[in-house]
């Protein structure tokens, strides 16, 4: 088996300092961590190799030996992947990368989660008309927010009394071993709080909160788009300590029958009769803010587009306006009467050979195909 160089494993140069080594290790460990790649043996091996390389190159003495003698020189110096590394150093890196969800092996303790059972932020969906999104409007929001139950102080437990979680012993974490590493994950029974409800609160039935209806007016800015989200400060749920989260308003914009929006540009299809295109014409078209004059040159092609700068939607971030893009859709008669057929035949004859462009191309092709079989 070919052994990769420690510098290659961490994707760094031999002249790089400790800070660069640490950054490289942090980035790659995050990418190949077993929790992010469950069941991926290749990622698991890569993660082990990263640990081994970092243990050596982050230690000045081991790095000097490795630079001079390679892996063979590290025998007896703690250079293997199963010992000789600083738990505090690796632990601080993992805490930075994974927060309190990672632990074990003396890497530090996990802070307990909040003891109330709901998120402090809230969200609501709001549907607006196409024109309301383009030009802005005011809307009334009717919604419900959560407020901590006064009897149980948001815990969901009778009289607010919680018992120690028997599954994690109150630590909020359960541990597992994978190879030479010990990992910790949030206890699924208490959700990391370390405590559980033994008897439910009779007032809120164990939910930990009561719901309150509220109504307020919100200003929808000009140019808001489908999928945008607005944050309304101080309108979210209320925690037991009285602090209040924010309300996030998720915007959905209804489609228009004629105008199609893409980012800040507006598209509209203009149907033209084939004679209008052949002769050229000037027509009036609708825009977001009124009427515009469109000059259609002779010979305009089907699906050809014309752009009106600045006639689109105003950017909600204030970066100007998009464009109005007009796409031509050429229409042909679905049926012809005798007089129309006669006129079209005369028109075709008047163009002569120009009215049959296929003949000049296909004549030479017919000759070529005949030679294939002669």
Quickly describe the structure.
With 374 residues, this protein is α+β, with helices and mostly antiparallel strands.
**Beta-strand segment tally:** 15
The shape, in one word, is flat
The N- to C-terminal Cα distance equals: 64 Å
What's the number of domains? 4
Uncertain runs are: 78-88, 99-112
Strand content: 25-35%
SSE succession: HHHHHEHEEEEEEEEEEHEEEEHH
Your description of this structure?
With 374 residues, the chain is of the alpha+beta class. Helices cover 27% and strands 26% of the residues. The strands form six sheets. It has a four-stranded mixed β-sheet. The chain has a three-stranded mixed β-sheet with strand order 1-9-8.
Task: Write the topology of this structure.
Blueprint: H1 6-9, H2 18-32, H3 41-57, H4 60-69, H5 87-98, E1 122-128, H6 130-135, E2 137-148, E3 163-164, E4 173-178, E5 181-186, E6 195-196, E7 209-220, E8 229-232, E9 247-253, E10 260-262, E11 265-273, H7 274-279, E12 281-287, E13 290-296, E14 305-308, E15 324-331, H8 338-351, H9 357-372
Parallel strand pairs: 1-9, 11-15
Antiparallel strand pairs: 2-7, 3-6, 4-5, 8-9, 10-11, 12-13, 14-15
Helix pairs in contact: 2-3
